[in-house]
Design a protein that fits this description.
It is built from no helices and eight strands. Strands 3-4-5-6 form a four-stranded antiparallel beta sheet, with no helix packed on it. A two-stranded antiparallel sheet has the order 1-2. A two-stranded antiparallel ribbon has the order 7-8. Helix content is 0%, strand content 26%.
């Protein structure tokens, strides 16, 4: 069983005033968070650099690995978080 513990926030800066504005790029394109996007910056893969995780309205969770640094974050295309080989889906009602 995969257990995630994180608080949902709108946007906040990486910890020391590093990050950016509400317009974040991944793979050279602006990320469409949708109306109900729930972005969180969290060191999901425990490499010391905060990644970007966004919940979608239909319950899937997008993971954008930070391939940059703490000071200059850079995100590539997302992958959906999985558990036991299946996309994690969190019901929204």
């Amino acid at each position: 069983m995969l257990m995630l513990t994180m608080s949902i926030v709108s946007f906040y800066a990486f910890s020391q005033g590093d990050l950016i504005s509400s317009r974040i790029k991944a793979g050279g394109e602006y990320i469409n968070m949708g109306v109900y996007g729930a972005p969180v910056f969290y060191d999901f893969d425990k490499d010391g650099i905060k990644d970007l995780i966004i919940g979608e309205f239909k319950g899937k969770i997008r993971f954008y690995k930070n391939v940059g640094s703490k000071e200059i974050p850079q995100f590539n295309e997302f992958s959906y978080l999985k558990a036991e080989g299946e996309d994690i889906v969190v019901p929204n009602y």
